[in-house]
Write a structure and sequence with these properties.
Helix content of chain A: over 70%
Radius of gyration of chain A: 20 Å
Largest sheet of chain A: 2 strands, antiparallel
Shape of chain B: globular
Number of helices of chain A: 14
Shape of chain A: globular
CATH class of chain A: Mainly Alpha
CATH topology of chain B: ABC transporter involved in vitamin B12 uptake, BtuC
Number of domains of chain A: 1
CATH class of chain B: Mainly Alpha
Oligomer: heterodimer
Distance between the termini of chain B: 36 Å
Distance between the termini of chain A: 22 Å
Number of strands of chain A: 2
Number of helices of chain B: 14
Number of strands of chain B: 2
Order of helices and strands of chain B: HHHHHHHEEHHHHHHH
Order of helices and strands of chain A: HHHHHHHEEHHHHHHH
Radius of gyration of chain B: 19 Å
Helix content of chain B: over 70%
Structural class of chain A: mainly alpha
Largest interface: A-B, 54 and 49 residues
Structural class of chain B: mainly alpha
Strand order of the largest sheet of chain B: 1-2
Chain lengths: 316, 319
């Protein structure tokens, strides 16, 4: 092979999001060490656990593609959980809860977007501050102790299956498909790509940069609200602690999925496999008896390695 | 009138707007001493200084990184990590140097990843935060252990009626003052940050400043100041605690921003940062005195952070 051919080959390989490689290697490890784990029933249960994370990632990848970040998901999820479990709205039906969750996410996301795009405040700081304000509010309202129970119909929906796959997983895959089609087919998807490549160039080409960022954050907020619904259904009780580490995990999965931070590239399926990798990773770590601290370390290492991988690639 | 506003907000100066937070600080002091019986007592003042000291120390370190346009989210984890190491069963003469060496290594790694591997500071330090939190919980899953007697003595005594925490503050501020205003390094930090903020990232490089090395040193400095705060806190709580550093990264950023330091880099001052940290500590102290729920205090702090950072202007959008 000539040198040029080799170079393009190397570039091709480097363009593959790391999540695919991580997923394949984790899958192989599981297959070699615990083949009995790899049946669809068991995998379905594992996948169902990461469905809220997977949904949250859809919003995260959108904002990260316009060079922003959203860490407020934890607060939104907690607030949605509080609506449902505190008995604040007695006798409310499912559509009412969906409306509440979406409306909350919409308002929070819109505020984030406005602060980031119009006031030009650092996205990390805005969304972190919003998150701790929401968490503080929920903890104050519930006096620091877990609120009541979740209505049974949510739990029932969560437990349904189509074939062997649990419905939450199918819902997650369906949302991912919609997001993928939306970003590749709509004009807004083109706007997102161009703003991510270079906000300045996009501005001079007539792309409404600020509006694109605001819409991205608003959508991320709505998606966080939906993730909050799924998360609440999954644990089936009120809590003042759930979902707090989800935004960081979502950032990690998105980076792993090839959405390069601060550059506008990346797809939707890379992060999807990033979430799948995390799901398998937790299984593998549990099998090998790695505790909670070890998992934290592994998460940190993965974020770092994925970021370094992209950093070095973009420099060369 | 315009002139006085300009003097107060100190537009276009390298020091940043620290006049306004000073007024806020004095205002809160006056309000609290008139409205609560316990505020204007020697006891409360000692309490306040001891409460504010860790935040002042961390915020000074954080400012070094902010001046070059970065952010260090790992300071809270460094604090927890330090208390966990100090609570190990080993001679004091070994523990203290080890703590500093580890902190320097953490800072070095943060800095190298940011400058050499082209990773965004937030991501690099966030990853570091996770690794350190994990390591801390491996060493000390729940709070416990014994802190060396030397550390305990250094924070709780007094000298001619002046409590030891005051001396800690004086020493740390003097070191930082020397570093920022009486050394070539400080000048370089402002130069690098100024270039970053105006979008000409290679301006400082073109003047012959070793940009990368200075940025790495800023991260090392930040981690070292955080570890000093960790030693101080270990002495105060008398045990190793994996959660003691929680939210310190946010509080320190709030303090830095409150003190007029621009998060885009290049503008800021030592006195501003100290005042910013004092204002935050004073607000916690005041909210405790009027018996506000700790959860509401979190909300108030988050609100302050949003307002302070929202008032800063910058060109760049996003992160």
């Amino acid at each position: 092979m000539s040198k040029i051919q080799l170079q393009t080959l190397v570039q091709r390989v480097l363009r593959i999001p790391p999540s695919y490689l991580v997923f394949i290697s984790l899958f192989l490890i599981l297959w070699l060490t615990r083949p009995q784990m790899l049946n669809l029933n068991i995998l379905g249960v594992f996948l169902r656990q990461v469905a809220p994370l997977g949904i949250l990632v859809l919003g995260q990848l959108l904002v990260m593609r316009v060079k922003s970040i959203d860490l407020s998901g934890g607060g939104v999820i907690l607030l949605v959980n509080y609506y449902i479990s505190s008995g604040m709205f007695p006798g409310a039906s499912l559509p009412a809860f969906i409306f509440l969750a979406v409306a909350t996410g919409f308002i929070v996301g819109m505020f984030n977007g406005w602060m980031i795009a119009k006031r030009r405040v650092s996205a990390v700081i805005v969304t972190l501050a919003v998150s701790i304000i929401l968490i503080g509010m929920v903890q104050f309202l519930s006096s620091g102790s877990p609120p009541g129970n979740v209505p049974t119909f949510l739990r029932d929906i969560y437990n349904t299956r189509t074939g062997v796959m649990p419905n939450p997983v199918i819902f997650w895959a369906f949302l991912t498909l919609i997001m993928s089609l939306f970003l590749s087919l709509s004009v807004y998807g083109r706007f997102v790509t161009s703003v991510g490549e270079s906000a300045e160039a996009a501005h001079f080409s007539g792309v409404p940069v600020e509006r694109t960022v605001i819409v991205a954050h608003t959508m991320a907020g709505v998606i966080a609200g939906i993730a909050g619904l799924v998360q609440t259904a999954s644990i089936a009780v009120g809590s003042v602690r759930i979902g707090l580490d989800l935004p960081i995990l979502a950032v990690a999965a998105t980076i792993l999925g090839g959405v390069a931070f601060g550059r506008g590239e990346g797809g939707v399926w890379g992060p999807f496999f990033g979430v799948l990798s995390f799901s398998l990773l937790f299984v593998v770590l549990t099998i090998y008896g790695v505790g909670e601290p070890g998992k934290l370390v592994v998460q940190g290492v993965i974020i770092l390695l994925a970021a370094v991988f992209y950093g070095i690639r973009s420099k060369s | 009138m315009r002139k006085y506003i300009d003097i107060l907000t100190r537009r276009n100066t390298r020091q940043g707007a620290w006049g306004f937070p000073l007024l806020v600080f004095l205002g809160i002091c006056v309000w609290l001493s008139f409205n609560t019986a316990r505020f204007a007592t020697i006891e409360n003042a000692e309490n306040l200084i001891a409460q504010a000291m860790p935040l002042i120390i961390v915020a000074i370190g954080q400012m070094l990184v902010v001046l070059v346009g970065g952010l260090d989210l790992s300071v809270g984890a460094v604090i927890s990590f330090t208390t966990a190491i100090l609570s190990l069963d080993a001679p004091t003469i070994v523990l203290l140097p080890v703590v500093f060496v580890l902190a320097a290594l953490v800072g070095l790694m943060n800095g190298l990843v940011v400058t050499r591997c082209n990773v965004h500071p937030i991501i690099a330090t966030l990853a570091m935060q996770y690794m350190l939190l994990g390591a801390t919980r491996l060493i000390r899953p729940v709070s416990g252990g014994e802190i060396p007697q030397l550390v305990l003595d250094s924070v709780s005594g007094e000298f001619f009626g002046i409590p030891f925490p005051v001396f800690w503050g004086i020493v740390v501020v003097l070191i930082a003052w020397k570093l920022l205003y009486r050394s070539r390094y400080g000048l370089h930090l402002f130069a690098i940050g100024g270039g970053m903020a105006s979008g000409q990232t290679d301006a400082a490089h073109n003047f012959g400043i070793a940009v990368r090395r200075n940025i790495v040193l800023a991260y090392v400095g930040s981690a070292c100041f955080a570890t000093i705060a960790g030693i101080f806190l270990a002495g105060r709580i008398t045990s190793g605690d994996p959660n003691v550093g929680l939210l310190f990264e946010l509080d320190s950023i709030t303090a830095v921003a409150l003190g007029g330091t621009q998060l885009s880099g290049g503008v800021g001052s030592l006195q501003g940062t100290v005042i910013g940290a004092l204002v935050l500590a004073l607000m916690s102290n005041g909210m405790n005195l009027v018996n506000l729920s700790p959860f509401v205090q979190t909300v108030v702090k988050g609100g302050i952070l949003l307002i302070v950072v929202g008032l800063q202007s910058r060109k760049k959008m996003g992160l």
